[in-house]
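Example 3.2
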Amino acid sequence: MRGSLLQRSHTLRQKRPKLPWLPAAKRCYGAGDEGMAPSLLPNNLMERPVKRNDLSQSLIAFDHSSTLVAVVELSFGSWLAAGLVPHLSRQPLKKLRPDPDALLRLLLRWRDQGIKAGGPIKRIVLAFEAGRDGFWLARWLRARGIEAYVIHPASIPVSREHRRAKTDRLDTGLLMRAVLGWLRGEPKHCNMVAISTIAEEDARRPTRERETLVRDQTRSVNRIKATLIRFGIRTFKAKLRQATKHLEQLRSPEGEPLPPNTMAELRRDLARLQLIRGQIGEIERARLERLKRAPRQGTHPMIRMLARIMGLGIETADMLVHEVLSRKLRDQRAVARYGGLTGSPDESGSKRRERGLARAGNARVRRGMIQLAWRWLMFQSKSTLTKWYRANGRRQARIAQSHDRRFGTQTADRLVALRHDRRSPGWCRPAFGDMSEL
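Structure, written as tokens:
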């Protein structure tokens, strides 16, 4: 009887028709199931096992009677520390000056009080919200035997009232509630941020500094153009090296020279612009020198490999490697979520619509991948993704959300493919950097 039932169920599974709107070689981001982009990744799920993420839940057993839990609300002028000490009926709360040594002494004093009250304390856990202070405090505490964590700000639930009470004391209560749920192992209760090393943080500084300088350069050029347009001058090119010498020759449509105060302002703006451009060039030259001096050191082989792809460039390769490709993300979905390139469906009852890209996560990665997607259409015109986009994306480009989703689908797929094959030495060796197989 049992054998016949198993045989019947096996026959039913074999006769079950495949759904026509979910082909095996295609994937879709979002609520809709039409216009799916071809995947760049192998479809063998056994080669991509799902790993447990130790940042979304604690994998260490939580013992209330032997664990001291503390949270710190960091601010510029003071710190507020709150603790949950075993064997103590009260929950201590202490305001400190921004001093890590004072915080460490406070934790040790709370531990001694708990031991004196009734039992041993074998574990000290401290957490604080990610913010302006970065990760230096967590690294400092971990070096001294304290189990320190950094809480992701988006994972802390807050009241949705129009005018809610907001104090440091209430914030420590929210942090304590989030940390206790995470320590108990409750899934998706709270997320912790990966604590990067000093070397990893320092490796990201050149790219981020250059991005800031490029924005300053654009702002300076726009300010110069806005100043000149008030006098009817539209043909002046502020990016020329000899732009300062051409200022004396500028004339308004009435044939009058520029006023003296305006001329002095433009000279200062041009001097500031030349300084910014010089700093950008210095950063770019220093990067090329590092890659040339140590081509096989650290992440340099990955940067050199990605830079060989036509349409990518050394700047985009450096940003992708240090911002996302060198991080230890859980799986391919986490890569797309980190870049904010996943969909944001809105489903409630009979309503079913797609609101485009989620635009969460690392904004630098998202902007870089969107720029790379447009360059991909120019320099990789024979690739499968480009042909798919031109056949499906442009047809409904007048619908902004559909266009955003389609464009984001190929952008996310390309980012995941770059991370999936970044260690394959033969992946970027097509002739002249062409990647028509993608």
